[in-house]
Amino acid sequence: MTSQPNAKDEMYILNDGIDMKAKIAAMARRLEELEMKKMQEVQAISQTPLQPMPCSICLSYDHLVDECPTIPMVREMFGDCNTYNSNWRDHPKFSWKPQPLQYKQPTQAP
What we know:
Elements: E1 4-6, E2 11-13, H1 16-47, H2 70-78
Antiparallel strand pairs: 1-2
C-alpha cells in the first residue's frame, strides 16, 4: 500500500486504499471545523440575554400577563361569571349564516 512515483510527471500515484484514507481524514477535519463553528454559534446564542415581553394587557415590563394588576379590577367590574346565554343561540344578529334578503312586494294602486 505504498505510493509509487510516476517517472514521466514526477507525481505520486496513490493506490485506492491510501486515497480513501486521505479523503476520510479530510472529511473528518472538515466535520470537526463545522462542529466547532456550530458550537461557537450556540455559545453566542446562549450568551445573548433574553428580551422580556411586555404584559399584553397594560404593556408593562414589570410583570407577566397572569400577574397584571388590572385583572382584579376587570373581574370586579364584569364579574367572574359565565356570560353564555343559550337563548342567544338562534338570534339572527349573532349568526354567521347569510341572512335571506327581505323583499317587500311593491303595492299597486287600485
